[in-house]
Amino acid sequence: MLLGLGLLYVGAVLVLNGLWLLGKIEDREIIVVNVVSGVVTLAISLFWAFNAQADAGSIKGAALTLLFTATYFWVAYNRITKVDGRGLGWFSLFVAITVAPVAIQSLQGADSSISLWMGWNWVGWGLLWFCYFLLLTMKQPILRFTGAFTVLIGIVTGWVPGVSLLQGWLQP
Questions:
Q1: Which of 38, 49, 131, 156 could form a disulfide with 73 if both were Cys (CB 3.0 to 4.6 A apart)?
Q2: For 82-118, how does the pLDDT look when each residue is reduced to its tens digit (9 = 90+)?
Q3: What is the DSSP string of 75-139?
Q4: CA 97: distance to chain centroid?
Q5: 172 within a domain of the structure (yes/no)
Q6: Residues 162, 7: contact at Cβ < 8 Å?
């Protein structure tokens, strides 16, 4: 159930951040969903890493989820302080490089439809973080593409599967 909870908020924040990039939401308004999603993913990560049954797999899941957490808090911070986002762009490159082998390993080791789906999620998330690097640090003119891609990735990798897991329509 924690995966469904986390994915629901990943979906929400990505869809709304995409709409914000497309100019549909004001800078200050986007702070709320980023902070809430950051708190949710932080709580899930701390539980996965430090509960009595924590193991290598749950700690790896926590470490990877904290990459999302840091991103959401950083987006909120940038909106509060009105900085240009270059630091977040460099962090996004770090994350994109970090999750590339995770995506490859996930796809190579996929033994079920859910594990295959997770592998493709990592591909999508890695590409999205790379888009943020290109947009924020390299100042490439891909704002509209990145906004639309963020909405799409939010729906496909977060919102729909999160709701499906929480409703019991999809089993982890």
A1: 38
A2: 999 999 999 999 999 999 999 999 999 999 888 898 9
A3: HHHHHHHT--SHHHHHHHHHHHHHHHHHHHHHHHT--SHHHHHHHHHHHHHHHHHHHHHHHHTS-
A4: 14
A5: no
A6: yes
